[in-house]
Amino acid sequence: MFPGDRILEDKAHEECGVFGIFAPEVDVARYSFFALYALQHRGQEAAGIVTCDGHVAHVHKGMGLVSHVFDEDNLRYLKGHLGIGHTRYSTTGAPKLRNTQPYVIETLDGPVAIGHNGNLINAPQLRRELLERGVGLSTSSDSEVIIHFLAGAGGSDWITRIRIVMAKAEGAYALVILTRDAIYGVRDPWGLRPLVLGKLPGGGHVLASESCAFSTIGAQMIQEIQPGEIVRIGADGYEIVQGAPPQQLAFCTFEQIYFSRPDSLLNGRLVHQTRQKLGKQLAKEAPAAADIVVPVPDSGTPHAIGYAQKSGIPYSEGLIKSRYIGRTFIQPSDELRKVGVAMKFNPLPENLKGKRVVLVDDSIVRGNTSGPLVKMLRDAGAKEVHVRVACPPIRFPCFMGVDMASQLELIAANMSVEEICEHIGADSLAYLSVAGMMKALKAEGGYCNACFTGEYPFTTQIPLIELQEKEKFVNVWGN
To answer: Is 16 a catalytic residue?
Structure first.
């Protein structure tokens, strides 16, 4: 995500998408490119690919979208039959080239590279431990900490080394790791971040943050990697072992609400269907007397479809989104910042004129776009605007790899629902309840809802004051 997006979009943001491939019969760099292209929604700041031919690692990475970073010339340079890729949105580590992944270092056992999705809550302690050992660090990312612990872990094989690292790491991580003869995938014991395994029709296997990456390259999904598992893909196929004892499952709820692409499979169900169920539950809990249901595109669309289906109120397009505003390093002027929402959304007056509108959004984070959107609908002729949000109020920051803003910036942490309603100028405002969300997800537990409840998933609970100190540590690095 580029700086312009942070100004114009009131959304939580994921850290990144990861991909891994072992396939001797295909151009792994090209396959990695198209897989990362499918995972672009998980991060737009930077991208990188590392390949290996069994001896030498080749790497190319840069700032920008996947399509900006790679071209025919640099893809041709990435030789080998195994590779990993990464597309990044920064949480720990400023959006600079030095923090771009995958990271690559040379070891006695050949090159090793890593791509990381998530955030370690004990990264400051681990970082200090490395520095005290005399290990030099060149970036501000917790992902570099992981690769140095991996390289220095000891053990007779990479599985053993990965297990040693998993015993030290606390927090969210889905990893892809490249060695000279295999690719490894690792999912944290809480299952906070997704990781899936697939196979290619001509032979070879792939790993990705989401299954949507597989359809782009013709791969078939085999299974979701379970919490605490390590998967190795190599010349002899794939092997899955337990790397660390699974903890109380705490899969990030926002993967279902917003992060994952609608055509991905999570927990055996299409994300688009899950979001429709959230919208239906929202309609049950927060009905409105209205003429049309309008989504905040694109992320609010499946929620709005579900709301319309359950309520019986017709679904209609009311806002058109420009998908390309903000995907640039060019900063808006102060004047353009003031009309930032108008840069990204345009109303459809003929659909809105004289109508009582239910405006459905997936979430409200800072609340800096909801008010302008409500005003935009009114200016286009809407008679009433009733805002409905397909998740509970976000009152707490995330320290597991989601850019959820600080508590001081979260509107629901500082205002009541009634105050937010007045602030954004809506006729009414309602959020989905935590219980209703869990009912729609068909889960009594198994999800991390810390941003809604303040209950963080780790067995060793970290006091909020300490978490806030960690937040300051992140901000020091310019994130």
So the answer is: yes
